[in-house]
Design brief:
378 residues; DNA Methylase, Chain A, domain 2; seven-stranded mixed β-sheet; three-stranded mixed β-sheet; 30% helix
Length: 378
């Protein structure tokens, strides 16, 4: 019955804004549960190019321009946002950067956030509350390290600010590998709700999905019950992927560095996976440099390892990218890549594509949280 309730609410369209939007992982997720994006903000010019290419058909009004050719609702620099010019919204999405606050006193809150990017979110929300249009839900994402950043002061200031603005909140760390994505990727999520509008004590996080796509709400059960994955699900056909085989020089360098680090007691070096691996390590924005964090073993073909293709890097984050197809066509039918998902287009260079996907959220995690927000808080 819970799913039906979600479907019912999805029919009632609600509005969201997409701050620090990147290439639109939040947009895909919120759109999938009935959300209409009324404002987005992203500074990086290549990410903006990808964002517009992928969402101009879904949400053409988002990219409207004035007589001077300036975007009305697709902001570039978040510091330039004028809150009164941002359309009213129900949900604020934001994967904001992790920055320290200069904590002035013991009472940690809004004033301590000045001069940081989080302040832009808090100030926009505050101005909307003052104007009589409080956002109902804040959907925030950050690196796992935010929990302990600056000895816990950073998170303390953020939560103190939410409380000061009148929001209740829940936060937790979720891992993409339990949501049908073959990647070990942990991220911290903060879900906040305006207490005068939403009468709940807490938000129940989804910790993963089962083989039948049911939500797992008990953290203790997630390892045992989560949907099984394998890295091969993201692979393009081998006639494409062998072109990404690394050179002898690079392979020798990777092995030498790993051995050097081992001798020095450091755990850093390349990481190797194959099609049967359950998941890869976390893909990062630096993947384009040498791909060392995720190399794919090709010893069965008597070849050096290879890097992921840009298409595979995107699929690793749950984007439906058709590329040159799949090594096994059946994988194109799973819940992340079947045609119920919008096709995602790569419109930038290989280097930029790796950078963008490494910086992205894992879409299936965001989708599942978005679905729970609709059920529990809307």
């Amino acid at each position: 019955m819970a799913e039906k309730k979600g479907d019912f609410f999805a029919l009632k369209q609600y509005k969201f804004i997409d701050l620090f939007a990147g290439i639109g992982g939040f947009h895909i997720a919120m759109h999938s549960v009935g959300g209409k994006c009324v404002f987005a903000s992203e500074l990086d010019k290549n990410a903006r190019k990808t964002y517009e290419a992928n969402f101009t058909d879904i949400e053409p009004s988002l990219f409207e321009k004035n007589d001077k050719g300036e975007y009305l609702y697709f902001n570039e620099d978040i510091n330039d946002i004028v809150p009164s010019q941002v359309p009213d919204f129900d949900v604020c999405c934001g994967g904001f950067p992790c920055q320290p606050f200069s904590v002035a006193g013991l009472r940690r809150g809004f004033e301590d956030t000045r001069g940081t990017l989080f302040f832009n979110i808090a100030n926009l929300v505050k101005e909307k509350i003052n104007a009589g249009h409080p956002p109902r839900v804040l959907f925030l994402e950050n690196v796992r390290g935010l929990k302990n950043h600056d000895k816990g002061k950073t998170l303390s200031v953020i939560l103190g600010t939410l409380d000061e603005l009148g929001y209740g909140y829940s936060y937790d760390v979720l891992n993409a590998k339990y949501f049908g994505v073959p990647q070990n990727r942990e991220r911290l999520f903060i879900i906040a709700w305006y207490k005068k509008m939403v009468d709940v004590d807490s938000f129940k996080f989804p910790y993963g999905i089962t083989e039948t796509n049911d939500v797992i709400y008990d953290k203790k059960e997630v390892k045992e019950k989560a949907k099984k994955t394998k890295v091969e699900e993201i692979f393009e056909p081998s006639e494409v992927t062998t072109q990404y085989t690394i050179t002898d020089k690079m392979w020798i360098g990777h092995q030498a560095r790993k051995e050097r680090n081992r001798m020095n007691g450091k755990g850093f070096g390349y990481s190797m996976f194959n099609g049967e691996s359950v998941y890869t390590s976390t893909i990062s924005a630096r993947y384009w440099k040498d791909g060392s964090e995720i190399l794919i073993d090709q010893s069965d073909k008597s070849l050096n390892p290879r890097t992921l293709t840009p298409v595979e890097a995107g699929r690793l984050q749950g984007y439906r990218i058709i590329g040159d197809g799949w090594v096994n066509p059946d994988y194109s039918k799973n819940q992340n890549y079947n045609d119920t998902n919008p096709e995602f287009k790569i419109v930038v260079s290989k280097k930029e594509a790796y950078h963008q996907f490494g910086n992205s959220v894992a879409v299936p995690v965001i989708k599942k949280i978005a679905s729970e927000i609709i059920k529990q808080l809307m």
